[in-house]
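Subject: Tyrosine protein kinase:Serine/threonine protein kinase

B.,
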Amino acid sequence: MGSPPHTFPATERYEYVRTLGQGGMGMVFEVLDREYGHHVALKTVLAHSSASAELLAREFRARRVTHPNLIRPLDLFIEGDQMFFTMELLEAADLARWTWSGDPVDVLSTLGMGETIPDPRQAKAGAGASQAAAGQWRGTALSSERIRGLADICCDLVSALDALHQAGLVHRDVKPSNILVTAQGRPVLADFGLAASYRRLPGQPAPMANVAGTPGYIAPELFAGVLGPPGDFYALGATLVHAMTGAPPPTDVDLQAWLAPRCPVAALVELIVELLDPNPAGRPDAEASFARLAAIAGDPHRRFRRASGQFSHGRGASMEEPFVGRADELGVLDGAARDAAAGSGAAVVEVRGPSGIGKTALVNAWLEGLADRDGRRLLVLRGDCHLHERMAFGGFDNAISDLRDHLVDEDELRLRHEGGLASVGELFVQLRALGWADELEEGGEAPLDDKARRIAAFTALGAVLAEVAAQRRLIVWIDDVQWLDGDSDSLLEQLLGPGVVPGALFVLTSRGEASGEAEPAWRASAAPRRVIELGPFSERETAALAARHGVELDEVHRLTGGLPVFVRMLARGGEVAGELGVPAAQADPLSALIRRSIAELDGPSQRLLDVLVIGTGPMARRVATGAAQTPSAGVALRALEDLGLIRYAQADASERLAVFHDRIRAARLEQLGVDARRELHGRLADSYADASPHAVELLAHHSRHAGRREAALGYTLAAAERAEGALAFATAGDYWAQALELGDAAAHDERAGWAEKLGDARVNEGRSEAAAQAYERAAALILEGLGEAPAEDSEAAQALARLRSQATREYLHCGRVRDGHRLLDELLSDHGLGLPTALSRAMARTLWTRTRLMLRGAPLATESAQLSPRARARLDILWAGSTGLAHLNFALADFLLVRHVDAALACGASHDAFRGLCVEATAEATIGGPLFGPRADRLLAAAGDWLERAQASDYERGWYAVSKATREYFRCDWPRLVEHAERADAHFERHRVLRGSGVSWERSVNDLYWLSALALMGEVEALGERHEQAYAEARERGDALAMHNCRSGHPSLLWLYRGQPEQARRELALALEPQRWCSAEALGQPWPEGVFSTPDLHNLLAQSQLALYEGGRAREAYVKLHEAWPHVGRAMLLSMRFLGLELRYLAARVKLAAAAELRREGPPTGIPDWPKGLEARALERAARADLRKLARSREPCALPFARSVEAALPGTKAARRSVSLADAVEGFGALRMGKHADAARWWRGERVPSMDERLARALVPEPASG
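Prediction pasted inline below.
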């Protein structure tokens, strides 16, 4: 082994063996691939430039067409000065040499532009070969036997050329030195340096063709710029001449006469003459050439079949798939594209159907048609999912690579997103090639809050895609979405959000199989969605597709079930009816065919197939061959390819193997027993450990199924840590759950730690119920390990309190209120506290504690006292309970709040007391009046004074601002509320960046009041912007209550302001536990169950507003209001400032609208719960009673509410109505409730541009007529 020349690339992976040859543009070396342990050929360019890189990449990609007679590419490297690719190394002779001698020699490949490598061992070839190579013919013609062998070889070459042509490529340099024949007689077409696309690709202009090739083999039409398959068949004719005579055909002779003495087979002479016809239309095509060559080879019945290629063509060049039918489905795809173009966000089309039904062919055919019809440039980002594969954002992995490749070459794209691109580069390593993570490396500080980093990355990626979609028609296609991982699901849901990627169409192909798990989050998005249920072909369509594939079977539809993939498999296998060997009554002939094909495999091929069958998806070739434990991997691979049992999947420029279809996998798995499967999993675990030791996810999977529990546990823990670090919360949670299952013999404290991490992952994922169960399990494991209750102030006691508090919070967030109350009661009892057994007792004890606080005062020390662990836990429990229940059970939350403030003041915990006093101030502000109203102001003033004395943190300043915003809500001062909310958000953001997580719940409370104020003010643009951000953050952290707050209540006015009642209805359908209080058992449930909560209030508001907006549904709204009213009173909501008045205003509006409907249409027939005998006059009397209560109030909102109702009451005189509406306009205006004021103006007869009758009806009752 000599020293490598200076042109050999510096690489640790490849070890130089020898130089195979050099041309004008590059060199070819034999190298040892240390990673795979075998010898390969390495080709590099001599001149390093962008043009060289482009040529090298083009040649490599052209080689990715899969066919047994095309040389196989391996890896491409274009990084800086490293520009090379590798390919299989063959022991073979070129065609001319093989024709005369049949002796294989090392591969010597043309390096490009017609320059050939001289053969250093030419003397070793026979005399005939030397004469042929030298272009000399001494009158010795090939024997008929040799000609038959040459024709047989050329049949395979025609098939290989046809595969290239079906992929839209032409070779442009077919000649003997580029055709290699192995010792086994397998011809291989090599050197794709001049290969070019001759067919217009979807969305792209037709490429310009340059004249290229080797003189003597270039078809005449190429000089005129006409590029196409006939040019390669011209070169094939010249190649046949060269193989027989030693030189390409002369141009100045009668070719037929000249060939006659040189070729004794007249049929071959005739074929060559036709292949060399100057008119491309006169040359035989692939099928005709194949048939004539097969006859010359002595096998006239040999069938020409186009190789059907890969089931899912994936990421390389692909062979053209025949496509028939599906007109209706193509129309649905067109409609989805129109949805995307017309909408303010992305649109979705889901193509469902079983494996092999033709989903991929349908989408491919539609994309080609779309590019032909559409003037906009098309960009398709393709992702795919795999069963059992656990990879962070695995569903988007390939799509992100596509995006990277697009952005690298996109000149007109100018991205400007401050601070966002670094986070995208941090999450998706493929994009780091664009320099998107540089700002972090240059000294910027990454936020410590993992969830916030992920939200930022999602948001920035959406902005990038939106900019791409503004310039191109963007299609994001994700295949096999039924296996979409949880993290990709979260990303997809984000990208489908309103206004995130306007104009983009997401095409999601899936098998439509029920997984038994919860509905994916992306389906809850409001994006326009169409669904295509793809069924089998009809008998006629199946026959048409079979004919296109060359399959001639009378019962092809019955045999294939109308599934296109099985038609293709029959064609690939060359099976005809008489060859199947399957009885006509056979229930599953294809499985029988598959099993028979597998049984006929040799040992190495069968072992390799079994490895791929047991794998989780596409597998690196080295891993597969290592697990198969066979040295003849190349032969095994070719056998599996020829039978159509495997496919090649390209991912990240590395070749991966996969089973061609799940039907093959299923048929083989039926034959593999439990012991055989366990052995295969063990072999794969060993192979991954040797070849890819960092693939801990796959090592965990195969070790577990091999029964190696200890090894599986170690890999599973490593995989969980990796997923956690990648912010892949769903994947991390799955691994922590597996660790708990595998590690049942581990120490209790270890398992408790895993369970807590499982809870943390489920919280971040948005699965609150699963998180609560995980925290409870962690607490139970700690107790099991101790064997007895821990000492009060021990670390174990603190951990138990923390875990059970977290479980309580998550149960309350997900609506499992009873479980939340159960845990809270246990926690309080453990700390000498307890839940009151009745509402009256809760109110009495709250009043007593609040009175004691008022008498004692609330002095706040500047510094907090040192607390015992038990005292600390007690305060945390009371705080968690009061805040967790704040929007679920006001009375119970109030009870826990005053206990928290009392305890904090008693033990000198000034920071806890500060927070509690801020909330207490808001609670007293809801009561108002001459006593509690001023006291709330004094408490907030004292809290503000403490902030300055204690040099408080951003968190505490943010909490103080939230409390002031809440107070303004109940005082109806919406502009000031917005000021405080903005200030709170800024403080919380600074705290998040500096300290990490810990402000999600606080921000959701702030958003609730902020959004409500903007909605009541009618600030539509500001409301929309804030709503989008708040909803995205709530969705990302999985806060069901916060998402509900965005979907209902005052914020739901956003869609009515925009004239989108359908959107309001969709969002309301997703709201948290709608109408829980309407159950028949609600009032009879023991307290604190069955309480009318804030979500119930928000649902009532949103439902009533929507019903009034749409018209004709007021009677339906009244029934819901009538059912809810006892619960409203029981929850003491009518006694709260603003809320009580707003509820009475809502009740009066609904009653008056329902009365008007009764007068017009009579009693409803479709509402079974309508109160028997209820008449319009009774509803109007009830509305008048509401008016009297509104009129007695001195709150700022009472006047416009009362005047609006007065104007709508029948019997109110016209003059009085006019005055009342004028007062309402003035009152709403004073409160800055602009849309309400506009509605009152509308009813006065003014034409307000931003108002219409539907919106006016939803905000202000329609005035009575007469």
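The longest helix spans residues 144-166.

T.
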